[in-house]
Automatic annotation (TrEMBL):
Primary residence: membrane
Protein family: Belongs to the UPF0410 family.
Keywords of this entry: Cell membrane, Membrane, Transmembrane, Transmembrane helix
Chain ranges passing through the membrane: 6-23, 30-53, 65-84
Record has Transmembrane helix as a keyword: yes
Bilayer topology: Multi-pass membrane protein
GO CC terms, sorted: plasma membrane
Domain of life, per lineage: Bacteria
Protein name: GlsB/YeaQ/YmgE family stress response membrane protein
The keyword Transmembrane belongs to this UniProt entry's keyword annotation: yes
Amino acid sequence: MLGLILTIVIVGLIAGLLARLIVPGKQNLSIAMTIVIGIIGSFVGGFLGYLLFGKDAADGVLQPAGIVGSIIGAIVVLVIWTRVGGRRSITS
């Protein structure tokens, strides 16, 4: 169980960092938030992969296509995060 959690965090960090490198613009995110974006992106990428190809985690947890899907999912989540987060304004 601990190995699975550690794998999820590491893949989330890698996917989040690569998404931040690919998406243009400045993102004011901490390392923890980068990991969260990557983990959420992994779920989004896994869900999209299941919808498109009918594959799931029973076919293997750590696959190159799964890692690529995690990065694509993290990019989608980061773009949505920057678009929604950029609309907030503070009024006095």
